[in-house]
Design goal:
single chain, mainly alpha, two-stranded antiparallel sheet, 7 helices
């Protein structure tokens, strides 16, 4: 038989020859090359992902620093004493442990910090909206002018309802005539007491608006009671 002969036996066939070993080696080489190329691609992808995470972390750090500086300025405007933003050694150790995973972990921690800063911004904004000092001057001052403007007419109505068309009602109407001026003076002082301006700022007391608010209810009620007394 020659070197490339085929041996035939019952139920099997075998090919023998010098080409069998090189073919196996080539297949193993191709498999190893593919595996190395996969490792190279994975390493390149990981390096690219780390570079993108590092760049995103730098941008996130800039946003966090800007937000903290803005918050510190707003707190100073609200009269909060200046505070140091330098972390303590235990805080540094905790931050180092949380960011041990590389740029991706740093990015996640910075995003968490920015979320806390945005939550603090929302709380400050809500608190500022509830402060009377952030309202328009007329609406703010109405909180003082309004109750005092209604006090005198309310007393007149109560006296009239209790005494009817009698001397007490006439006295209440007469005494009610100068009371809008008194209510305005008291409210003018009250605005300055309740809404204290910041140093160097001038408080807008909305004088004309306040005088109108104090005058209109008293005039209407006094006119109504006067007509009721004349009719009675």
């Amino acid at each position: 038989m020659g070197p490339n002969a085929t041996v035939t036996g019952p139920g099997r066939q075998r090919t023998a020859g010098p080409d069998a070993e090189p073919t196996t080696a080539w297949s193993e080489y191709l498999a190893a090359a593919r595996q190395l190329d996969g490792v190279r691609r994975g390493a390149a992808a990981a390096a690219g992902e780390q570079a993108r995470s590092a760049e995103a972390a730098r941008e996130e750090l800039t946003l966090v620093r800007t937000g903290l500086a803005s918050q510190q300025e707003r707190l100073r405007e609200l009269g909060v004493p200046a505070i140091s933003l330098v972390p303590s050694p235990p805080e540094l150790s905790e931050a180092a442990r949380s960011m041990a995973g590389g740029p991706a972990a740093v990015l996640a921690s910075l995003r968490t910090a920015r979320g806390w800063a945005e939550g603090a911004d929302a709380a400050l904004a809500a608190r500022r909206r509830l402060r009377p000092g952030s309202w328009p001057a007329r609406v703010r001052n109405l909180l003082v002018y309004g109750p005092l403007a209604l006090l005198v007419p309310l007393i007149q109505i109560v006296v009239y309802a209790a005494t009817g068309t009698g001397p007490a009602s006439v006295a209440a109407v007469i005494c009610g005539l100068p009371m809008p001026a008194v209510a305005f003076a008291v409210a003018w002082l009250g605005v300055g007491r309740v809404f204290r301006p910041d140093p160097g700022e001038r408080l807008d007391r909305t004088v004309r608006f306040g005088a109108l608010v104090c005058l209109v209810p008293a005039v209407l009620v006094t006119a109504g009671l006067s007509l009721a007394l004349l009719a009675g």
